[in-house]
Amino acid sequence: MDHGAEIRRKAVEIRSEVCRKNGLKFQDLLTAEELSRSALDFAGLDLLSEHPESNTLQGALAVLDPVDRIVYINDELEGGFRWFCVAHEIGHQALHNFKPFCKTEDIEALTFDDEPDSASDKVIGYGPNERKEREANLFAIELLLPCAALRKAFAEDGLSATEIAERTGMQVRFVNRQLARAVLIPDSGPSDNLQLVDKADERNSPYETSPDARDVPRVQAAQAEVRDTFGARFELNPSQRKAVQTEECPVLVSAGPGTGKTETLIRRIVHLLEKGADPRRILALTFSNKATQEMRERIAEARPEDASHLYIFTFHSFGYNLLMKYWEEAGIAKDADLLDQIDALLLLEKNLSELDLEHYLVLYDPMRDLPDVLTAISRAKDELCGPARYREFAEAMLADAEEDDTLKAEKAIETARIYKIYQRLLEEHESLDFGDLIMLSVRLLRDNLEVREKVRKSFDHVLVDEFQDVNRASGVLLRLVAGKGDGLWAVGDLRQSIYRWRGASPENIRRFEEEYEGAKRLSLETNYRSVAPIVRTFSEFGRSMIAREPFNDWEAFRGEGDKNAVSNTVADEFATEALGVAERAHHQQADGNRFKDQAVICRTHGQLAMVSSVLAEQKVPVFYLGQLFEREEIRDLLSLLELASADNCHALMRVGQFAEYGIPEEDILPLLSYCEDKGIGFSDLDPEDESLRIADASRKTLGLIRSHLEVEKGTSAYDLLSDYLLTRSRYLRGLISRQSVSDKQKQIAIYKLLGFASSVEDKFEDPATCIRDFLGYIKRLVMFREQKNLAEIPAAASGLDAVRLLTVHGAKGLEFDAVYLPFLAAGKFPTSYRGEKCPTPPGLRTDPKDDHIEEEECLFFVASSRARDRLHLSRSINYSEYRKSKPSPFLTAIEDVLPEESVIAALAKPPEPELLPPEAYARREFYAAELDRYLECPRQYFYRYEAGLKSGDNRSAYQKLHGAVFETLRLVQESDLSPAETKAFAVNTFERLWQEAELDGHAYADLYRTKGEELVEKIVERFAHPEARQVKKTIPVPLSNGVVKVSSDSIEETGSEGSKKVVARNVKTGKQPKNVETKDADAALLQALKNEYPDAEVSVAKVYLTDDSEHTQNISEKVIENRLKKYEDAIDGINRGEFEPNPSDRRCPTCAYYFICQKKD
After folding, report:
1. Helices H / strands E in the chain, number of each
2. Residue 349 domain-assigned?
3. Do the beta carbons of residue 434 and residue 316 sit within 8 Å?
């Protein structure tokens, strides 16, 4: 049971006893006052009101005196909030043994699913007092508004959140938070929790495990007898005992998968306490907040009196606390803000013009490469390299560069320049990023002897978990804290170092003896997780790894198991491979292994999405949230927000088709056309306007939608969504009435969205634009690839019986009865090395390609060691129609211990659907740009050209700049001015168009104005002379099923009859790339010239304004044929109504239809 569930259980127990004692029904909606007064009586507490400025309260809202058993309450508090504060103090009395002074910020810190509010909270966690306040909040909300009672009231009695608030006397915002959890998180008891720790540790641990009967033989097989809640402990094996009891520090314990690493660490701490160590002088450093919480809970069961006094931190939270304690000595602001990655990117965006980007400037998306630049800066901080040192490395790189490496060195120098500006901006804004938490802590301890000695003398024992995932800067920080290492005890496994992209440095393990004189190494030698064939498989791979350490084969405690524990299959194509996984999953379930005890582990989310769709088709329940903002139910709610805030009605295309509304398509399109013609948003739409040609039922429905979206100005996205889902509409009621795994996942996804909206609402303070700004923030998250943290599944929802779909990183620390590893082909797993977007200077780190290979090996080692009873390895011969795939080199490395490869029989191909021939459709004309848009994303084409939704003001800033520049070019070409007059004309024209585009308030305004003016100068230089003013021309190209019209910015004809030359030029705003791509329209343009000028020598060229270069394209007849065939296929798709979306993290967030986009029914 997770910690939050335990607190909720305690609240439920007390409510149950209170209800029993007072003749109340648990699931009735009791008033907050009635329940709180009864709970006070049950707990033996008195309630006294105090003046807000009394010495007793000391500025707090409420205070618990556990000695005199009194709750003091601010007498100005009223209603439900007053009684929530009382329940909060009852929570302290039930959970904690101290006298709290609870202030507004403590009691109002009510979060979703007991999780931290922000990304920064997830990194630094909470201090002991803050943690207790949040625990008391959790207790209070469950005591007053238990999930079971709310679920019944909403789902069975049909009450809304507002009605529940009225009956209980609680504020709606409190009801909304708890009601969302009650109805959106599926029921799960203690036996249904997915353990977010190493289950092998748990098999050999002192903590309560699942009572499921199927777990009993597993526990027995692990030499484990479940200990009771009073902390009776299992007997350690010899290697564990040696590690726990060693007196020879510093020591590094090598702990392979399933060897009981976490249990050994905890037992080490308990051993120190039992020997008389002061808990206040023990420091334990872990890799994640979940690990710190688990460690604290498990120690509390064995040593409850000591657990709260231990110092248990992540490295980053330790650094944060160190900097906050010694902020003056560290030279930082006392209350410095901590920025996460997205906040840091937004800081750079606000100062974009100052960055003066060159190599990293992509004009259509100036922020495109900055996430990679920030990652490079973060890695530099992991290596304790500041801006000046980074510049030195980059300049040395340039000095030593050969011709092919000059560009890389210039990029490194630009990164150094951005790093310097970024660090200055952080200081000016009194902010820190995550890298600063370690780097500045190292600087503090290195430079300040007094502080270093204070910190060192604070701890007799320092313990480190997951040592292989510690970055180099953290390793140095550890050295400064632990000194010579007399009390240092670390545990890790070099083969499981899978966080290189976050700066993890295996060098900490490799150099342990160098760093700490006299250091010893020990090993845990027994694997409690897997049967022997699986242990032999990942052991064999471990011997071949770059990151290998000397080791003896682990003993497989569970014995040989089934002779078919490991399978090795090959399929003709992915569809067959995935069907093989589905078939095995069904067989496992039929044999008594629940779906939830099986997992598909892939290298990438894209692979998981492919597997997910096939398993779902084969009726295998899967648990996979994927990318939150791409889910259909989430797009529903985001489109709802867009409808409420946009100055157009595009979102009616989606919202109008909600089950509750059901506006028919024949009314949707006239509605959209009406709004487009009038240029109005939904708030200005008058359903009763007689010029609006729709059915009366649709007019009534529009009124219903309006009533659902009528909110006060300044209402946040979270409040609007909560009110819509829990009070106004029936959207949620229809969803929760269905009980399939798929529907439950939708509920969980909505819960995650609500939690996210709540956590960021303080970022958007402008009441006029807060919802629109929230939607823009989501687009930024997707563009910057920062939405991955939202895929985490709430612990309380982990009981769903469905196959888990996980990346290797997501599977770390977990185990399953059956594990499936598909996509074991070269380029799939391991992935291909793609180079660095921000080249790292030599001297700063090891060769990045070598790092990539080493990390891929570690990922495979981790993935293959997650299985307990079955490990299914598979690959396909054809993942692409263009070429065959080779087996993964990882399979080759373990071929001596693998069973013979079995072939999955190819499936019979379903008959191709009968399609009407092209001649059955009327021939249509298309501009090449239209067909290009269809080929890029059919759904975007549909919205723009079939539904007629114009981009309008949803055009990006770049599109507006582009339009102004090319309109200036067109007008210059059409003018008959002299060269002297042309410059002034061009400058004035661009200025007028700039003002019309209203770009001055945009974040990129300074950058775009400067670049736009430079481009206009280039236009003048090239087109000022009359003979250079070849006007734009459009030429039709007949195809087998239609006509494509292609355009050129200028067509130049030279020579005479018999020696005529024709050059079509298209103008580009940027620099000429190293490799100029041939677009489909380029090939079509060349064919158009051949048709138009059959006796001339024709060519197509591109003009690049930024560097004033020109490139003539070499396009063969075969390429022309293939590209025109693509256009014909596009026309066929349009004729057949095939408008499926083609998602892209980079392209989609810039699309005007992003939030309304949905798959075609």
Report:
1. 48, 28
2. yes
3. yes
